[in-house]
Design a protein that fits this description.
By secondary structure, the protein is α/β, with parallel strands linked by helices. 28% of the residues lie in helices and 23% in strands. It folds into 2 domains: 3-238, Purple Acid Phosphatase, chain A, domain 2 (4-Layer Sandwich); 244-366, no CATH class. It has helices at 24-48, 67-78, 177-181, 257-265, 270-273, 294-301, 320-326, 331-342, 347-366; strands at 3-8, 52-55, 84-87, 110-112, 119-123, 128-132, 156-162, 187-191, 197-200, 203-205, 221-227, 232-238, 244-251, 277-286, 307-312, 315-316. It has a 6-stranded mixed β-sheet, covered by helices on one side. Strands 5-6-7-8-10-9 form a 6-stranded mixed β-sheet. Strands 13, 14, 15 and 16 form a 4-stranded parallel β-sheet that branches. Helix 7 (320-326) packs across helix 8 and helix 8 runs antiparallel to helix 9. The longest helix is centred in the N-terminal third of the chain and has 25 residues, at 24-48. The N and C termini lie far apart (86 Å).
């Protein structure tokens, strides 16, 4: 028996991106795009004739979803009635007493594992046993999976869980990776870590199908493939509509304002700039007389990027030695000396020095 399978999770439907750096309009667009990508995952199940859709937790956001959203999810799962949808609820879509999961009757093809203890779902027609568990609270420090072992090696055995196999002291269902490797499962589908990664050929974090912020750069998508008793072939499939991309540009004091704009325009090809979300970090030394107003730069560049935000980490090209020598007997010289004593290797001290210099020098000019 060969099982066609899609493994996803950490979709976070309903997320409002309240802590994101982009504005409310962009946040709402991104929220809708999560639904769009979820719909494409359903379509992909139809396209490949998936036997199983594994959802490794954080399907939706407890805090933001409504019963209308939950019914919408259910209706989409009902579109793939020939696919068994198996869910392990995570820390953002918990299966507690007041869980949104409990507000509706799910389609016959949907199975949601109970919380706090590992249970099994027998799929006789597929000669398969899927093991899993859900969360019923936001934190889980117990090692609920460690020690689990396959019982019947004549069947395909799959483990589905939302937890942390990368940190031994995690508060998010810590999992011992080495024990997993020796547990005998044909495939282990994990969620919680938003970057896709294979811990072994048959143990995988699916990652989030859509990146959620600038902490989630790189490719995002789903895990797709085939599972059989003696051969598992699951692989990453890029699926995200957009990427979060961070670019650093190093400038010097000889580059003027318009040149900075021109350089930013060339950081990527037009196709990518028109599709993805960019954070540009300016570093290096700038002409001390140039004021880099990041909001103005964004306005100049808005027609060249789908979305762009700019961080200015440049420092003015002050000649500290010269300024100190010329002002050693006044407050300016004393300020430079004090900052040097605190250590200019410290970024906070360095920033304070340049902000202070700018203020003191401007006062000196006024006089």
């Amino acid at each position: 028996m060969v099982i066609k399978c899609i493994h996803t999770g950490d979709i976070h439907l309903g997320m409002e991106f309240k802590s994101a750096s982009f504005d409310k309009k962009q946040a709402n667009t991104r929220r809708l795009e999560l639904w769009e990508t979820f719909n494409r995952i359903i379509d992909r199940c139809k396209e490949i004739g998936a036997h199983i859709l594994l959802v490794a937790g954080d399907l939706f956001e407890d805090d933001y979803c409504t019963i209308s959203d939950i019914k919408r999810i259910d209706s989409m799962f009902r579109e793939i009635s020939d696919t068994k949808v198996i869910i392990s609820a995570g820390n953002h879509d918990t299966l507690g007493k007041r869980s949104l999961y409990k507000l509706i009757k799910w389609g016959d093809n949907v199975h949601i594992f109970e919380p706090n203890t590992v249970s099994k779902l027998e799929l006789g027609s597929l000669n398969t046993v899927v093991w899993g568990l859900s969360w019923d609270k936001k934190l889980e420090r117990q090692r609920l999976i460690d020690g689990i072992k396959v019982e019947d090696n004549s069947k395909i055995n799959i483990l589905l869980a939302h937890g942390d196999a990368l940190s031994k002291e995690s508060s998010y269902l810590p999992i011992d990776k080495n024990r997993l490797i020796n547990s005998g499962f044909d495939y282990i589908a994990l969620g919680h870590i938003h970057k896709h990664q294979f811990l072994s050929p048959n143990i995988c974090y699916c990652g989030s199908p859509e990146p959620l912020d600038f902490g989630e750069t790189g490719s995002h998508g789903i895990i797709e493939g085939q599972i059989s008793k003696y051969n598992t072939e699951m692989e990453f499939k890029p699926f995200a509509k957009r990427k979060f991309i961070i670019k650093e540009i190093t400038i010097n004091e000889n580059i003027d304002y318009n040149e900075i704009i021109d350089i930013i325009k060339t950081i990527d090809n037009k196709e990518s700039r028109d599709m993805n979300l960019y954070r540009v970090v300016l570093s290096g030394t700038k002409d001390r007389d140039i004021e880099v107003n990041t909001e103005d730069l964004k306005e100049y560049l808005k027609n060249d990027f789908y979305y762009i935000e700019i961080i200015d980490n440049t420092t003015p090209d002050y000649d500290l030695d010269k300024i100190y020598m010329e002002n050693s007997n006044n407050i300016l010289g004393l300020f430079i000396e004090e900052m040097r004593n605190k250590g200019l290797d410290n970024e906070i001290v360095k920033d304070a020095l340049y902000y202070g210099l700018e203020a003191l020098l401007s006062e000196k000019v006024k006089k």
